[in-house]
TrEMBL record:
This is VgrG protein. Residues 17-34 have a biased composition (Basic and acidic residues). InterPro entries: Tle1-like_cat. Residues 1-55 are annotated as: Disordered. Residues 35-55 have a biased composition (Polar residues). Residues 391-479 form the T6SS Phospholipase effector Tle1-like catalytic domain.
């Protein structure tokens, strides 16, 4: 076997291919160029023939010349194989910028069999993609003079036409053998083969893990019931008389995941897209919150201790084995995918809130640099989903976590989970946390390697924002969500028993204000008032006394268990009644969108006027404008490599006003079970006035 000198066209074909695609030159000028190149090529071919450069025997009548090009007239490289003649003799050949020229073959039919793996890896490269412009290969074939002054046959072929099938390699339908021109080659002829380009895209998946007690489907059902209750009960004077207490105290007819507004995770999942771009296929996969079941009752075990089918780990398994696959099938059924052959790379944008943030972190550690997880089997078993030849799940060039966006990570699980994020686990990690969350069962797992926040990776960002857990991650209702034309206050009402204090007093005639219980209660209430949670404190003994918006009430009860006892008990409930707006969580939502967009996450453009995005409240006479804070904080999450304690930069009076009207008080003790779940985290030796959140460090490579 011998090769002719390199064709003159390949030396200039890159420039020409661009010209064809842009369509900036005339057909006549292209013909002139090809004619000139052809004359040069003919002279070189004659020189080769005269030099006796052949392959096999000296029988020069039995020869074949094959030029293989992509749709831009580019050659393929570094692929070996065989040309097989009519006697099944194999003649080794290689693809490069030179023509394949083989002589001394048996006369008759010949075929090519390229080494499958190297051929498909080369053919599926992005530089060999389909050409949507004019066909430069056809022009080249028309102007090329082959061996012995032959005119080449021009054929369009598929990658499958040039290799033998194997069990391990599955080709997209457009590229299997016999899906183009009939490839029949014989000795004594020249051929120019144009190989159909693979339209491989990057598959970009947004995976959204919602928090405990949050579920998009259940939210929609609960919202409809809540709106009906507000309209038919609380807005109807006749009904309101019977339901007065429930309406005024915010005791709504929905509970659990049906009682919550859509979280920031739910909103982000709906902002992720569009489905198809020039180089990517994009779709979101929303994963139901921990402890929830769509259309059914919440799971107590899942919600309380993250066990069972709705736990943190179970949600990750379900996402890998079922949910992502089902979302993909839904996408391909509703979008035209006929021109997409498969995927050369998979990118993951992973989001989560609360225990969903824990699930997001566990998911990242499950799929990163790992070729043994449930997503591999579920995706590769989808009929019609093709990955490029040699796709390697453990290679970050093929499978990569691009962005991790999490809100206030809380694990609180009776399971071993992998929450530690290594600096290289993703290209970018952003964590938004709550400064006013201090429930005992809601410890924060930071993305800093120490609890003080001084050790953080250069591509990580953690921002501490005012508000409670769901003021950052979302889930509290807004007037905008509840709709217009009704009074939404009952759904926004926060009526809580913050704490209760009990003391045994020896002096039966002593006024209750002298008791230890009352002293501790008033001290606690004054501390809350100082922080801005309420406007005033009232003390009363009448059990039917009704609080007004912005009041902390000290409800006092005194009694003796036995009238002959010389001691009395003093019991003081610290109550708080407020109507709290729900727009604060939209600022961290906007911050996450902005941080994601800065790294190429395909979020829709932010629309300030959208009722689920706006920070402007419909309530009058609120002395603070969230939109100003939104502008100030917006780009904070885009600053890499640091911890930003945004809440500390607020003036005291602004922070107090923010707490009064927008921050929810998540810790409370409305009953024995409620206290078990939502009590504040006080130190053992603390008097009960100031609560502090437990902080846990980021521990890469460890389970927790």
């Amino acid at each position: 076997m011998a090769s002719k000198d390199p064709l003159p066209v390949p030396h200039k074909h890159k420039e020409k291919a661009k010209t064809f695609e842009k369509g900036g030159r005339t057909a006549e000028s292209r013909k002139t160029d090809f004619a000139e190149n052809n004359a040069t090529q003919a002279n070189k071919a004659s020189s080769n023939s005269a030099s006796g450069i052949t392959a096999g025997s000296v029988d020069t009548d039995n020869w074949v010349e094959i030029i293989i090009r992509d749709e831009f007239n580019e050659p393929f490289a570094n692929v070996k194989g065989n040309l097989i003649d009519s006697s099944d003799t194999k003649h080794p050949i290689a693809l490069n910028k030179n023509p394949i020229f083989v002589s001394g073959t048996s006369p008759g039919t010949v075929r090519l069999e390229l080494e499958p793996t190297s051929w498909l890896k080369e053919a599926q490269k992005s530089e060999h993609k389909p050409n949507l412009g004019e066909d430069p290969v056809r022009w080249f074939a028309r102007s090329y003079t082959g061996h012995q002054s032959s005119s080449p046959d021009y054929l369009t072929v598929t990658a499958g036409d040039l290799t033998a099938p194997t069990e391990d390699i599955t080709l997209p339908p457009r590229h299997v053998a016999k899906q183009a021109d009939n490839l029949h080659m014989e000795t004594g002829r020249s051929y120019v083969l144009r190989v159909k380009g693979f339209n491989y895209k990057t598959l970009r998946l947004g995976v959204f893990f919602d928090g405990t007690g949050n579920n998009n489907e259940n939210h929609q059902q609960g919202l409809a019931e809540l709106q009906q209750w507000l309209k038919e009960t609380c807005d109807d004077p006749a009904e309101a008389a019977d339901e007065f207490e429930n309406c005024r105290l915010g005791t709504t007819p929905v509970e659990g995941s049906y009682a919550n507004d859509m979280t920031n995770i739910g909103k982000l999942s709906k902002m992720y897209g569009p489905p198809i771009t020039s180089d990517r296929h994009i779709f979101p996969a929303y994963i139901d919150g921990i402890g929830t079941v769509s259309g059914n009752n919440d799971s107590l075990m899942g919600s309380a201790v993250s066990l069972g089918d709705t736990s943190v780990k179970a949600r990750v398994v379900q996402a890998c084995q079922l949910d992502i696959k089902e979302y993909y099938r839904e996408q391909i059924s509703s979008n035209d995918m006929t021109d997409i052959d498969g995927y050369s790379k998979i990118e993951f944008d992973v989001f989560g809130f609360s225990r969903g943030a824990a699930a997001a972190r566990h998911f990242v550690n499950t799929i990163d640099q790992n070729n043994n997880h449930g997503l591999i089997e579920s995706l590769t078993n989808i009929n019609g989903l093709h990955l490029k030849a040699g796709f390697n799940w453990s290679d970050r060039k093929d499978s990569r976590v691009t962005f991790v966006g999490i809100f206030d990570t809380v694990e609180s699980a009776w399971q071993d989970t992998m929450l530690g994020l290594s600096p290289d686990c993703a290209e970018r990690v952003v964590h938004l946390t709550a400064a006013d969350e201090y429930r005992k069962n809601f410890p924060l797992t930071r993305i800093t390697n120490d609890v003080n926040g001084s050790q953080i990776a250069s591509n990580f960002t953690e921002v501490v924002l005012p508000g409670a857990h769901s003021d950052v991650g979302g889930g509290y209702y807004s007037r905008h969500t509840l709709g217009y034309g009704i009074n939404p206050d009952p759904a926004l009402t926060e009526y809580l028993r913050l704490r209760y204090f009990v003391s045994i007093e020896n002096n039966l005639t002593q006024h209750f204000t002298k008791s230890q219980a009352y002293k501790k209660a008033i001290q606690y209430a004054q501390h809350k008032q100082k922080l801005g949670w309420a406007d005033r404190i009232v003390t009363f003994t009448d059990p039917n006394r009704v609080l007004n918006d912005g009041e902390i009430g000290l409800r006092v009860r005194t009694f003796r268990r036995n009238h002959r006892q010389s001691k009395k008990s003093v019991h003081v409930d610290v109550l708080m009644y407020r109507v709290v707006e729900g727009e604060l969580s939209r600022i961290p939502l906007h911050m996450m969108v902005k941080a994601g967009q800065a790294e190429g996450v395909p979020f829709h453009e932010w629309k300030t006027g959208n009722k689920i995005l706006t920070t402007k409240t419909n309530r009058t006479n609120i002395p603070i404008d969230l939109s100003k804070l939104e502008i100030t904080w917006l780009k904070t999450a885009c600053i890499k490599g640091g911890v930003k304690e945004q809440y500390k930069e607020l003036p005291t009076d602004v922070y107090r006003t923010l707490r009064r009207y927008y921050c929810h008080h998540s810790s409370h003790e409305n009953g024995a079970l409620d206290k078990l779940v939502n009590q504040a985290n006080y130190s053992f030796w603390d008097s009960g006035e100031i609560a502090n959140r437990e902080l846990l460090p980021n521990t890469p490579g460890q389970t927790s």
